[in-house]
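@here heads up, posting the sequence + SMILES for the zinc ion run so it's all in one place. Ping me if the SMILES looks off, I pulled it from an old spreadsheet.
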Amino acid sequence: MLLCPKCKKPLEKRLNTFRCEDGHSYDIAKEGYVNLLLPNKKNSLLPGDNKEMVSAREQFLNKDYYAPLKDEISNYINSHYNKELSLLDAGCGTGYYSIHIKEKYQYVMRILGIDISKFAVQKAAKKDKDDLFCVSSMFDLPTEDKCFDVILNIFSPKANESFKRVLKDDGILIQVMPGENHLIELKEILYKDRVYKNDVEYEYEGFNLKDKMEVSYSIKVNKDDLMHLFTMTPYLYKTKIEDIKALDDINDLDITIDFIVAIWGK
Ligand SMILES: C[S@@+](CC[C@H](N)C(=O)[O-])C[C@H]1O[C@@H](n2cnc3c(N)ncnc32)[C@H](O)[C@@H]1O
Ligand SMILES: [Zn+2]
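bot reply: prediction finished. Complex structure tokens:
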């Protein structure tokens, strides 16, 4: 059940509005999402991934370069559960992973997707009209305690306290982070002499590691997809303009994909 971000009382859906008993109300947008991020909780006018990053992510993911990752998570859930599940996609982006996982799940799954970026939530809500996607922060989740069986935390910030609050006692937190060699060839082009490998940290304060999987393979990307990949990653903000020019000369590139999937329990 959703809670009012102002008074924390339950929200009830009536027609196109969520309303609490104190009269606070939140309209459902035409795309089907609801904005539960209070203006005083925003750290900028348009927090989270901007329109350009969200559009690049959507175009890149639509090519299914990351399909092995969504299948790995989906298979894990299918082999560990045989009951109705409630899933929180925290930092859901365009909903690429959770919507697929629900489609492949052999029993009923209800998704709540939240992201602080309105642009991301708009895209996710348009694709899945049966579930709820809302603009909200994962550090101040608008839900009751212990109401999710599964939380997805895929390339999004860690939010230990709130995840611990909303996860059921026997629930799992699925974290995906870059492995040591993820996108190493792209970094070699962008950063030349100072290429570093990603640090993989098996720690999540307040949680215990239950399982871990590594998903590694290689993809060939063309020029357009390389730019989409670059734009959807944090490199966009870390790279100097003159270094970005190095991508102009590349027509296609073989790139290592290296994901770590860590499964955490309470
Ligand atoms: C790298 S993207 C990953 C998106 C999606 N999980 C995926 O892998 O396609 C990180 C996402 O976290 C969102 N985000 C960042 N800070 C957040 C916060 N405090 N609460 C909710 N979402 C947040 C961003 O807007 C962005 O959509
Ligand atoms: Zn209220």
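MO: The chain is about 30% helix and 30% strand.
MO: One more: The first helix runs from residue 51 to 61.
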